[in-house]
Amino acid sequence: MTVPTVSCTNCGTNFTTDDLRGTSCRYCGTVLAHHARAAQQVAVVNQMLADRNGNGIPDAFEGLVANAQANAMNQAFGGGAYPYGPYGGAGQPPMMGAPPMMGAAVHAHHAHAQAAQAMSKAVVVIVVTVVVVMFLIFGVGVAMYVAAAG
User: Fold this and answer.
1) Got the DSSP string for 82-115?
2) In CA terms, which of 14, 83, 100, 136 is 20 to 30 Å from 68?
3) Does 12 reside within a domain?
4) pTM (two decimals)
C-alpha cells in the first residue's frame, strides 16, 4: 500500500513533515502552495479592512454604516419603512396636486440603493473569504495528517 505524499509544485521533490513546516521548498526555494495562498488571502482581508479615506471605518463596511445612519434618520423623523418610494413618501401614492419626487429625494433614493449594493458586495466577499480560509485550514490539516501517518 502506497502512502500519498505532498511534493513541490516546481521541482517535484517529495516533502517530509519538517519540509511542510517551512514556507518554501528547501531544494528549489519555491514558496509552498499553501503559504502562497494564505498570503493572497491576507492581502484580500487587508484590502477589505483598508480605510482609504481615513474616516475610521473600513471601506468594506462604509455601506453598512451609511445604511444604518439612513435608517436612524428615517426612524427619528418619521420616514417610515419606505421613505424614498416611487411616490416620494413612505411608499404611498401622492395626494391630488402633490409634487412628484424630485431633487433631494431622488438623490437620497440613489444613495440608499448604492449603500445597499455596497453592503451586499461586502457580505459576499466576507462570506467567500471565510469559506476559502476554512477549506484551506481543512486542507492543510488533512495534508499534515497524511504526512504524519506516513
Assistant:
1) -TT-TTSSTTPPPPTTPPPS-HHHHHHHHHHHHH
2) 100
3) no
4) 0.36
